[in-house]
Amino acid sequence: MKVTDLSLGYGERRIIHHVDLDIPAGALTVIVGPNGSGKSTLLRGMARLLRPATGAVHLNGTDIADLGHGALARQLALLPQAPATPAGLSVGDLVARGRFPHRSWYQRWSERDEEVVRRALSQVDLIDRADEPVTELSGGQRQRAWIAMVLAQDTEHLLLDEPTTFLDLAHAVDVMTLARSVAHDSGRTVICVLHDLTLAARFADHLVVVSQGRIAAAGAPKDVLTPEELDDVFGLSAHVIDVDGAPAVVPVRRA
Amino acid sequence: MSLGVLLPAERAQASIRSSATPARLTVLAAAVLLLAGVATSLAVGESSLTLGQVLSTLVGQGDPFSRLVVVDFRGPRVGAAVLVGCSLALAGAVLQSVARNPLASPDLLGLNAGASVAAVAVVILAGGNGGVSGLAASVGLPVAALVGSLTSGLVLYLLAIRGRQLDPVRMVVVGVGLAAAGTALVSWLLTLGDVMVVGPALAWLSGSLHAATWPGQAGLLVVLAAATGPLVLLARRLDLLVLGDDTAGGLGLDVHRTRILFLLLATALTGAATAVAGAVVFLALCAPQLARGLSRASRPPLLASALTGGALLVWADLAARMLLSWTGFGPTELPVGVFTAVLGAPYLLFVVARQRAGSEGIPS
């Protein structure tokens, strides 16, 4: 995925200004930034939920503005932040919704659909709970069910908007481990917006820092996350240490 | 997928998706209730017929008297109850899915009000002594109601949607405002009218099938038939809309256009139904949620909602027609709209109470 000169906004209000970005294929890219920096807006633009004011997003050389709704949804899946879960919807039915872009209105549910949905459910470890209502699941399980839905969409690109919001640390780590394994095991391009720097630093292959609607830094986490950068962008005083070969952000304790 | 419930082949083996059995049973039960209601309504009245007489008349073999009663006297009324009930429930089912809100229905969203204003305007301004008749009644009234509900549908859409996003709560708040404005306009129109005209207008406003005729419901039949095709083809899209705008968009749905199309269909169904029966309230609110609860579905199922709506209105109309004479208050009848309101108001309170008990905010 390649982003060129992308500007985005709502109405008159411009939020993202002329952003250029190269997203590595088959890896987990994490977008971080302070509150209100425009990271979620950038993700929405990359998923074409917002039309660009300038610039374009290309998937494998094709401008996504030129793709039909179905064609785009077969190449790129998006999990919005805190999606609405209707009461009475079973886990299996939710994940089955992910097959929508692969079925025309006249097509019945196929064995292929069934197989992909089963695989997605196994991947998030919910295959035994397909009959249960999504609303009955715990927060972590519910988020995994939603991730299974975008996995069932069977796309090369996967966009996740703050998938760890409202989750405690253990479940957040589960979700990020899953996102990373999806990228590495099946060679998909996963792009994830996070507000938690520690998680971002631990799991990202490629880290993008957004600040005031522009890219402040992009690259490997150990190159991007420096105490200077953290102070500069986030106004955070922190040590950056190396644990298990990945950086960890440790806030400075002031007396 | 709403019609998927009728296609057993689709789920020959145990599927990862939930069973369609509750949905099929709901469709079956509602259909049986509807047919039983139609047969009973045709049989019961001032001069009672046996079920055998009704059935033989329906297959074209009844005696002339039964035929007069079934085809000419009671038929139009029962037919209108079925068509109006199905149409309003369908409109409600669609609106509740699009708005992701179980409180969304044509009456609460002000679509009925728009139809009422336009229709009452026709009655008051064009009506002669004793209400409208002739061309104004057979063409003017339905067209006015349709235009009225489309107008309020348009206003609703323009006010409820900001930046191409639909806020479920905002939509209901705007709808309540529209309904209030409509009621005020109707009251004002009524003060302008002649006493002889206001009476029939008031009767129409409270929702009545009393004056139903076969030609009067032809328009509704056409609208219902025309709406069914797109609804069957697009039903699957409602499954996505209830997941929210961004999710639906990410799954490849053109949310904006799909929503306009569904609102248009619901508005047309409401307008056409209101033209026939006046303001029948609450039916479009209750029937879809009843069907949804019984089907254990994530949104109101279309076919089951329509059948439930038809069945409810047929039985409600029978009760409205006969209740006072059965209880010894003489041959007067209640307008069916009064009856559905009496049944529907407690239901509305029940929904609100249940919603507050749930931790999930607004279930859709």
From TrEMBL, chain A:
Cellular compartments annotated: Cell membrane
Residue intervals passing through the bilayer: none
Keywords linked to the UniProt accession: ATP-binding, Cell membrane, Ion transport, Iron, Iron transport, Membrane, Nucleotide-binding, Transport
Membrane topology label: Peripheral membrane protein
Domain ABC transporter per the UniProt entry, residue ranges: 1-237
Annotated Gene Ontology cellular component terms: plasma membrane
GO biological process: iron ion transport
Entry annotated with the keyword Iron: yes
Chief place of localization: membrane
Any GO MF annotation of the entry: ATP hydrolysis activity
Record PANTHER family: IRON(3+)-HYDROXAMATE IMPORT ATP-BINDING PROTEIN FHUC (PTHR42771:SF2)
Official protein name in the record: Iron dicitrate ABC transporter ATP-binding protein
Source species of the chain: Nocardioides luteus
